[in-house]
Design a protein that fits this description.
The complex is a heterodimer of chains A (253) and B (482). Helix content of chain A is 42%, strand content 28%. A six-stranded mixed beta sheet of chain A has the order 6-9-10-3-11-12, with helices on both faces. Chain A is globular, with a radius of gyration of 18 Å. The two termini of chain A are 36 Å apart. In chain B, helix 3 runs antiparallel to helix 9. Classes of the chains: A alpha/beta (253), B alpha/beta (482). Chains A and B meet through helix 2, strand 7 and helix 3 of A and helix 10 and helix 11 of B.
């Protein structure tokens, strides 16, 4: 599904990703962990196609297509969804109209007619239950006046509505209390399927108690320096990142 | 990666002005220049009574003593008033009995503008008056409205058929001495719309006037007079376009509204005059005086404007709140792109007790344009317990455009309350990226964000107009993020 090969990416003059490789197969959940500044959010931005980042080397294949060759909206229509770490507010634009427009574009790309108003509303009511999003919130302007937790739930709600094949969660757990965390995780788990993959970027092991990953990768200085299973996350929780940094430095020396 | 920035910008900004066509019909056009003789010619062509000719000539002498105002935040080369033709009319052979007898070329123009009168008749129930260059060429629904006692016709017809009303109200809200452009208009106005709603009548359909400048080297000076008698209601729409020409054309209109006791007037404008090209060549100078008088107890006047066109806009639709408990409202979206300049806003003059005004202004500046809000809230000593709320927001699409706010507030009693809020923000790249990431393209993203920003104002427009306005906003701003 997703094959990232030796990606180098920089913002302005600073190289952040320095040869990152990662392969994600259909249905898999990969957790990306790592200390601050290791390049986690850059990876999310590069996958989504944020223009501030320049890819200088390497390739990314998504379902056999060259992802780097696509505009951000094409990537979205092909099935890449990014749940933002800091979802923006768009005043005056109702969450519903926004989602209707997005869904219509994605369906058009798939050669499908827009959903009728009735079917759309049915889908909204079904999917909003997944993240226990209050009916009122779905009618408000996009993220405007939402609490931090509501914004994150709205991201997962949007993902459920748009049904991507690859969901990228960029620190979706940050700023959530334990109840909200459980709700968000349940929403994601409900979407897991043999066709759909997730890349879950997080600082903390905690989220991975709820969204159990197939693989855990440690990102350090713009590369994946260690990969393992769920146990690796537990080990990181216990021992921190220093031992990994030491390992990496000693290999270099 | 995604967009080759400049390429996209170019392809979008070079999108042509959609209404830039001209109509090939013979016109009856006066030679350029302005003298007393020109005015006599206009008055004669229109078969006007002598009082109106005298009124015009006085206006002309007032105008000659005035100088063109320079206080607005705009720069332009002043028009040569002697190089303009002050009268141009599509040549009509005989007085038309029905719209079916219209010149086919004229019909084509209307169709291109989306004014299919037949269709309007059947579907939307909007009565339309169409003014091309200097004269009104078609008014629909006249008879149906007539049954209710509503008069809706060109001002030229009103002069002939209802001289007592015209004489009583013409210039009563915007006197000839008011300003340079109003004086000029009073001297040379050639047509426009007239509307009278009798006591207690709620006008059952939107009334609409469509203004079109067609002929080269002409100016358009229309005059609109709208009177809502006691307890009546009317919603009035005004749309404007012009062909694409390399010269600047002058549009100096005057609109006067009068709302008597318990009457309500809702006046909506979607202004899409040709804005000039990317480098500022050509375009309409839109120097317009619009003012409404809330004359009676609990009367209400509401202005809503969506301004996207014109090279230069100089326009301050205002309300004089004379009746106690009268209400004035001003909702505005002004978009400037490329090198357009807009200086627009409102005046709310509170005279009656317990009067209330609301001002919501949303400026959107793109390209290298300059966009200014200029407003006056004046609460006189007599206007006890009055209130005003003003909100002036500016949205910058580029680093090279400018947004300015010039609010003037004068409060002369202690029982009134005035609130003013102002914000300036830049359209967020993060907002755009968020939309792109959900599968929307750049144009949809901008359209969505800008329409969301302007929503409070767009919500005030009648339904059919709101949809048009939304599209227009999107077109005016295509490819404008930098």
């Amino acid at each position: 599904m997703l094959i990232i090969d030796n990606i180098h990416a920089r913002i302005e003059e600073k190289e952040i990703l320095q040869g990152l490789s990662l392969t994600v197969k259909p249905g898999e959940v990969h957790a990306i962990m790592g200390p601050n500044g290791s390049g986690k959010s850059t990876l999310a931005a590069v996958l989504a196609g944020k223009s501030d980042y320049e890819v200088t080397e390497g390739s990314i294949l998504f379902n056999g297509k060259d992802l780097l060759d696509m505009a951000p909206e094409e990537r979205a229509r092909e099935g890449v969804f990014l749940a933002f770490q800091y979802p923006v507010e768009i005043p005056g634009v109702s969450n519903m109209n926004f989602l209707k427009a997005a869904l219509t574009e994605i369906r058009k790309h798939q050669g499908l007619e827009p959903l009728s108003a009735k079917d759309f509303l049915k889908k909204v009511s079904e999917k909003s239950k997944l993240v226990e999003l209050d009916g009122q919130l779905t009618n408000r302007s996009v993220n405007e006046g939402f609490s931090g937790g509501e914004k994150k739930r709205n991201e997962v709600f949007q993902m459920a509505m748009l049904e991507p094949t690859l969901g990228i969660l960029d620190e979706t757990d940050s700023g959530l209390d334990i109840d909200a965390l459980r709700i968000v995780a349940n929403g994601v788990n409900a979407m897991r399927s043999p066709e759909r993959s997730f890349v879950v970027i997080t600082h903390y092991q905690r989220l991975l108690d709820f969204i159990v990953p197939d693989f855990v990768h440690v990102l350090y200085k713009g590369r994946i320096v260690k990969s393992g299973t769920k146990e690796l996350a537990l080990e990181l929780e216990e021992r921190g990142y220093d031992w990994i940094k030491d390992e990496v430095e000693s290999v270099k020396a | 990666m995604a967009y080759e920035g400049d390429e996209l910008l170019d392809s979008l900004t070079s999108k042509e002005y959609e209404f830039g066509f001209t109509t090939n019909i013979a016109s009856d056009k006066a030679p350029a220049g302005l003298t007393e003789d020109t005015i006599r010619l206009i008055s004669h062509k229109k078969n006007e009574p002598s009082w109106l000719l005298e009124w015009r000539l006085e206006a002309f002498s007032i105008w000659q003593k005035m100088t063109e105002p320079e206080w607005a935040h705009v720069t332009y080369k002043k028009p040569d008033y002697q190089a303009i033709s002050y009268y141009s009319a599509p040549k009509a052979k005989v007085k038309l009995n029905s719209l079916d007898e219209l010149d086919p070329e004229l019909r084509k123009t209307m169709d291109k503008l989306g004014i299919s009168l037949e269709e309007q008749k059947r579907l939307s129930g909007v009565a339309v008056d169409f003014v091309m260059d200097s004269v009104s060429v078609a008014t629909s629904f006249k008879e149906k409205l007539g049954e209710l006692g509503i008069i809706f016709c060109s001002i030229s017809d009103a002069v002939q058929e209802h001289p007592e009303l015209v004489k009583k109200y013409l210039g009563s809200i915007v006197p000839r001495t008011d300003n340079f452009f109003a004086a000029l208009n009073s001297a040379v106005f050639t047509d426009g719309s007239f509307c009278y709603i009798p006591k207690g009548v709620k006008c059952p359909m939107e009334l609409s006037t469509y203004f079109r400048i067609n002929e080269a080297g002409t100016g358009q000076f229309e005059r609109t007079l709208l009177i809502a008698d006691e307890g009546s209601y009317v919603s009035y729409l005004e749309g404007c376009t012009a062909p694409q020409r390399d010269e600047n054309q002058l549009h100096a209109a005057v609109v006067e509204l009068i709302a008597l006791e318990n009457a309500e007037i809702k006046y909506s404008t979607v202004q899409n005059w040709y804005p000039g090209d990317k480098n500022g060549k050509g375009g309409i100078f839109n120097f317009v005086t619009k003012r409404g008088l809330c004359d009676g107890y609990k009367s209400k006047i509401s202005w809503t404007q969506v301004e996207t066109g014109s090279a230069i806009t100089w326009k301050y639709p205002s309300c004089i709140l004379k009746g106690d408990y009268s209400v004035g409202e001003f909702y505005s979206v002004a978009v400037t792109n490329n090198v357009q300049q807009a200086d627009t806003g409102t005046k709310m003059i509170h005279i009656g007790k317990h009067t209330k005004s609301t001002i919501i202004s949303k400026g959107i500046s793109s390209g290298h344009s300059q966009n200014s809000y200029r407003g006056l809230v004046q609460i006189n000593k007599s206007a006890e317990n009055s209130r005003n709320f003003s909100q002036c927001d500016s949205l910058l699409m580029t680093d090279t455009s400018g947004a300015h706010t010039f609010p003037y507030i004068e409060v002369k009693n202690k029982t009134s309350k005035v609130e003013h809020e102002a914000t300036t923000s830049k359209i967020g790249e993060d907002q755009i990226f968020y939309c792109l990431q959900r599968g929307l393209d750049m144009e949809q993203a901008i359209s969505l964000i800008v329409n969301g920003y302007a929503k409070e104002v767009l919500n005030q427009l009648p339904m059919e107009f709101a949809v048009e306005a939304q599209k227009l906003l999107a077109i005016s701003l295509e490819g404008s993020v930098g």
